[in-house]
Amino acid sequence: MAAKHMEHIEPYSPQSGTMIPTNFRKFLRTCVIWQFFRFIAINIKMTILILKSHH
Amino acid sequence: MCTCQGAAFEYIFNIEHEAKKAGVRDNVDIKWISNESFLGDFGMGGMHLNVGGYTASSKIFAESLYSERKLSWIIGAHVNKVEAGKAHYELLDGTMGVEEFDFAMLIPPFAGVGLKAYNKSAEDITETLFAPNGFLKVDANYAAGAYENWKASDWPRTLQNPTYGNIFAVGIAFAPPHPISKPMSSPNGTMITPTPPRTGMPSAMMGKAVARSIVDMINGATKPTHTACMAEMGAACVASAGKGLFSGTAAAMTVYPVVPDFEKYPGIGRDIKMTTGEIGLAGHWIKHFLHFAFIWKAKLKPFWTIIPE
Ligand SMILES: Cc1cc2nc3c(=O)[nH]c(=O)nc-3n(C[C@H](O)[C@H](O)[C@H](O)COP(=O)(O)OP(=O)(O)OC[C@H]3O[C@@H](n4cnc5c(N)ncnc54)[C@H](O)[C@@H]3O)c2cc1C
């Protein structure tokens, strides 16, 4: 099966030496339901960090 | 030695996003030229994240994102001359190169405003007050020397000038003891290394600590009573990678501490649980919300004090 998300990558180029997100991973990045939960999770993480940074 | 790599990151990804939206992405070739020794260094020696069962360097995530968005990169580059349509640069291996462009955005070198200072008897005290790069000297260890000797404790805590107790510098204005990233130079002796970023959150936290110390000193304290040290605080950073209520994305990152402490956290210098990053629409929403929240805070509107830095 051809990997559509890799079609723009030139073999042996610096770009071919890294990881490229799959189409599903890219879909999740703008999937409103999934991102709603990520929004909550990131806000919690940032709040903990802010609380830890204040003396 | 330019300022915040994050600003350049936002710029290049937003240009890419807009070009795609306008349907002309295939007509433009977009390239990132940076003095970082690796992509994803961001002037803070990069960062490590736990993802998918691995602890991986920000180099991998940065290269991944640039590759996915069809952006190429030239790393370890010092741009030494710009003429119409051409940027000349030197690389860490000492070789020279030229990049042709139709449109370019360059970030200027990071330096203080170049103020001159004089004491009561009109003697020039600029060198006592400011470091050679124009930033104000504070309670940092400026004699740390080589990278191998750097410690988290070199970083200032009270942000008070050691000679003049009534002078403080916060945010971008204070002179850091040294860079955060390991300094690199080319065989020709050209220093090619990014400057430590001083982003919004640490800048505001320093401002708050210094303001409180000043209040206490006015009320009789003999020395600063509050501290804000970049080696002891974290930073939350949201870097936009494209605008759009449903199509936008931004990289939402947390690092703790900003300046790595290799004694406390051997190997990677940071708390792996508190150092995180992900890209997505949620990051864009957060960035958009923060935009309004910070303007609200700056205008001291109701409940402004509960909005964090
Ligand atoms: C394009 C860009 C994007 C950024 N994005 C982010 C981001 O997404 N998140 C983040 O956390 N940080 C970001 N930053 C960094 C952030 O803006 C800075 O860290 C922060 O503004 C520093 O605050 P400061 O008060 O130290 O300096 P500044 O905000 O620069 O304030 C210094 C002030 O001093 C004034 N001044 C200068 N000289 C004089 C003089 N001689 N007399 C009187 N006044 C003078 C200036 O006009 C200015 O108002 C970004 C920076 C840039 C450039």
Describe this structure as you would to a colleague.
The complex is a heterodimer of chains A (55) and B (309). In chain A, 53% of the residues lie in helices and 0% in strands. Chain A has a domain at 21-55. The mean pLDDT of chain A is 92. Chain A has helices at 23-29, 32-53. Chain B has 309 residues and is an alpha+beta fold. Helix content of chain B is 22%, strand content 17%. Chain B contains 5 helices and 10 strands; from the N terminus they run H-E-E-E-H-E-E-E-E-H-H-E-E-E-H. Chain B has helices at residues 5-21, 58-68, 126-129, 200-218, 281-298, and strands at 31-34, 48-51, 54-57, 72-75, 77-83, 86-91, 96-100, 235-240, 250-255, 276-280. Chain B has a 3-stranded antiparallel β-sheet with strand order 5-6-7, with no helix packed on it. A 3-stranded antiparallel β-sheet of chain B has the order 8-9-10, sandwiched between helices. In chain B, strands 1-4 form a two-stranded parallel sheet. Chain B is globular and about 65 Å long. The chains are: A mainly alpha (55), B alpha+beta (309). Chains A and B meet through helix 1 and helix 2 of A and helix 2, strand 10 and helix 5 of B. Flavin-adenine dinucleotide binds at residues 4, 6-7, 113, 171-173, 198-201, 203, 237 of chain B. The site of flavin-adenine dinucleotide has 13 residues of chain B, from helix 1 and helix 4. Chain A: Keywords: Membrane, Transmembrane, Transmembrane helix. Chain A: The chain crosses the membrane at residues 32-51. Chain B: It comes from Sulfurovum sp. enrichment culture clone C5. Chain B: Keywords: Oxidoreductase.
